[in-house]
Write a structure and sequence with these properties.
Radius of gyration: 23 Å
Largest sheet: 6 strands, mixed
Shape: elongated
Helix content: under 10%
Bound molecules: beta-L-arabinofuranose
Structural class: mainly beta
Number of domains: 2
Strand content: 35-45%
CATH topology of the largest domain: Tachylectin-2, Chain A
Length: 447
Amino acid sequence: MRNKVLKKRGISFIILTFFLFSAFSQNPIIKDQFTADPTARVFEGKMYMYTSHDIPSPIERLKEWFCMEDYHVFSSDNLVDWHDHGVIVSQENVPWVAAESYSMWAPDCVYKDGKYYFYFPSTPGGEVRRGFAIGVAISDTPYGPFTIEEKPIEGISGIDPCVLIDSNGESYIYWSGRGMSVAKLKDNMLELDSEPMQIEGLPEGFKEGPFVFKRNDIYYYTFPWVREETETLAYAIGDNPMGPFEFQGIIMEESPTGCWTNHHSIVEYENQWYLFYHHNDYSPDFDKNRSARIDSLFFNADGTIQQVIPTLRGVGITPANSIIHLDRYSAVSPEGTSIDYVNMDNLFDGWKLILNKKEAWTSYNRVDFGKTKLSEITARVSSKTGGTLSLSLNEPSGKILAELNVPADSSWKEITVPLKTVPEGVRDIKASLNSEGSVEIDWISFK
Ligand code: FUB
């Protein structure tokens, strides 16, 4: 029924049949608020993520548009557990921003000579009161407090700042709006050191959100690009930070949920590259309320980027004794599985997995059982028909971890049974329906 509602609501839920792809935090990664335009940076050995903060608009003018009044920063050392450091910059504290413009769009943050520079676009107030300018806030730490510059950067009219500090210490700022532009930054990181110039070598079509990084002496100019209907993520490469660049192709195809924008960053952490991006997971009907996601990204030997397929499983290792959401699966059987929201009145309550055909299954990779002997599993389940759920290791041994008989009762209940096998280490697991009927699973957890 709820699936019908979801389809009616315009979600194609291609993800229902995205079977047999695997990945290694669960997506979306921030589960209590909207987080858009994620720029990830590694500072002090941790991953920091600077996001725009979509909110349902408090003013009529923006009810159907982007509405953002402040920025949060999040940090994590395992890409699974994210700490929200709270608001770092808010529109009412920026002297040059128009009151109630709610246009604190995609930001960036970089570190130079002991200071963190946070770059953000917004609408200037005063006589200008239109378009976008780019402001800077400075801090001694990645998470603030930030001191906001009185005025935006002179010479830039646009959005989506991205700053590259090259290996020789020279800095460049990229932005979009009236084309895709670049200029050198002075050492103070607050002023342009060259005239803005257009980036050459990019394909025709709407582009924004540049993110530029360097790897093995190749400069990667990556950007959201509308090739057909909504934004893909695409890239070009070059041997000069100011271009020209040579177009290479797509990093991520259009969002399967129909989210018109995508906005990303690409960063290496502990020897693995990651793509941070956004979809509208918690807002299927309104794609201006978005949520940050992460998936792994891989390079080919020649430096080209392998296309990234968005996953629900995301990245990172899930502790066995945490709440494990099987609806964020690594793979599912081609038939008999679906996902739906647990609570249509509050989508931030997340999703549930529905197995509704005998032998339907879902797998979930990289669960850490550690060395502590666990003895039971608890599952939060419901079933109108009753059914038997089997949990096993998703490996050739196929060892059964537990079997749960779920009674016919459509209310949610937590069922605990002893483990038949007690695994150790990081393992992939699988849940299957061993009976006719239909069983819904909110989460499982090992104790
Ligand atoms: O979040 C507002 C705007 O949507 C960003 O600045 C663009 O890149 C797009 O994601």
